[in-house]
Each structure stands twice: as structure tokens, then as C-alpha cells.
Amino acid sequence: MDKLAILHQGITIGIIGILVVFGSLVFLLFFLKAFIAALRYYQIRQRARRIGIIISRSVDDGPISEEVVTAITMAIHRSRQELHDMEQTIITLNRITRPYSPWSSKIHGIRRPAR
């Protein structure tokens, strides 16, 4: 085999390898985007079931009554309130003094010149 054939095979293998890697990355990108969208859809449906809203795919062209709008508004308000805790956060910083340790000393890291 001459050098030109070996070079041609090397370039071919390199191009195929690059295409496989980038093709895999593009596939993973689309797969993860679809997975995240499905997960969000599932979470929204679970929240709706928890607070008692029935999600249907049919659309009614009639006007929505004030009672329905009030019920939906209150359900959204309650679901958003559940996300936040009403706790008071108090952060306390205590300074801890440690005795001298030779392991943390910088002087031991300095090299001495050879004699």
C-alpha cells in the first residue's frame, strides 16, 4: 500500500468519526428537548389533577362564565402559593478559630536551594 492510499483512508475515517460524533450530539439535543417538553406537560397535568382542574382537548366556542374564571384564577393562585414556603430564613455565621497546623503552613512549601 502506498502512502497516498493510507492518507486517504485516514482522512475518510476522520471525517466519518466527526460526522458520527456531531450526529450523535444533534440526536441527543432533540431527544433531550422532547423529553423536557414531555416532562413539563406531565407535571402540568399532575398539578391540574391535584387542584381539581380537568384538562380536555375539546374547545367550546361559547363565552366562559364568571364563576369558571374565578375558579380557575383561585386554582392558579393557590398552586403558586404552594410553591413558596413561608419560613423565615436566618443565617448565622460563626467564626471558628483553629490552632496552628503545620499542614496549612505556607513556609513548608518553599523549596530550599541545594548546598
How would you describe this protein?
Helices cover 58% and strands 0% of the residues. It is flat, with a radius of gyration of 32 Å. With 115 residues, it is an all-alpha fold. The longest helix is centred in the N-terminal third of the chain and has 49 residues, at 3-51. The chain has helices at 3-51, 66-83. The protein has a domain at 1-55 and 63-82.
Features:
115 residues, flat, mainly alpha, 58% helix
SSE layout and pairings?
Elements: H1 3-51, H2 66-83
Helical content stands at: 55-70%
Tell me the total number of β-strands: 0
Structural category? mainly alpha
Radius of gyration: 32 Å
Number of helices: 2
> What is the molecular shape?
flat
Strand-residue proportion: under 5%
N-to-C CA distance = 59 Å
The biggest sheet, with number of strands, parallel, antiparallel or mixed sense and barrel status, is: none
Order of helices and strands: HH
Mean pLDDT: 79
Low-confidence parts, pLDDT < 50 over ≥5 residues?
A: none
Brief write-up:
The protein is 58% helix and 0% strand. It contains two helices and no strands. The protein has helices spanning 3-51, 66-83.
